[in-house]
Amino acid sequence: MPEKTKPEKSQPENLKSNNTKQTFEPNSRMNTRDPYVSVPNTGAPNTPVKAPEQRSQTKGQPVPFRGGGFAPVSRPWMGFVVFFILIAFLEAGTRIGFISALTMPKPSDVFNTFVELYNSGLLWTHLVPSFTRFVIGAAIGSLMGVSLGIAIGLFSYVRAGLVPLIAALFPVPKIALLPLFVIWFGIDEASKYALIAFGTFTPMVVATYGAVDNVDRGLIRMGQSFNLSWFSIVRKIVLPGAMAGILSGLRIGLAIAIILLVAAEMLGAEYGIGAYILQAGSLYDLERLFTGVAILSILGVLVNSAIGLIEKRVLRWRGV
Amino acid sequence: MDIKLAGIHHTYGDREVLRDINLDIASGQIVCIVGPSGCGKSTLLRLLGGLERPTLGDILQVGNTPEGCLNPLTYVFQDFALLPWRTVAGNISLVLEDHGIGQAESQEIINDVLARCKLSDFADVFPKQISGGMKQRVAIARALAVNPAVMLMDEPLSALDSQTRELLMDDIVSLWTRQPFTAVYVTHNLAEAVRLGHRIVVLSRRPGEIREIVNIDKPLSERRHADPDLEQQQNALWQMMRDEAMAADAELINA
Ligand SMILES: Nc1ncnc2c1ncn2[C@@H]1O[C@H](COP(=O)(O)OP(=O)(O)OP(=O)(O)O)[C@@H](O)[C@H]1O
Ligand SMILES: [Mg+2]
Question: What is the pTM of this model?
Answer without folding.
Answer: 0.79
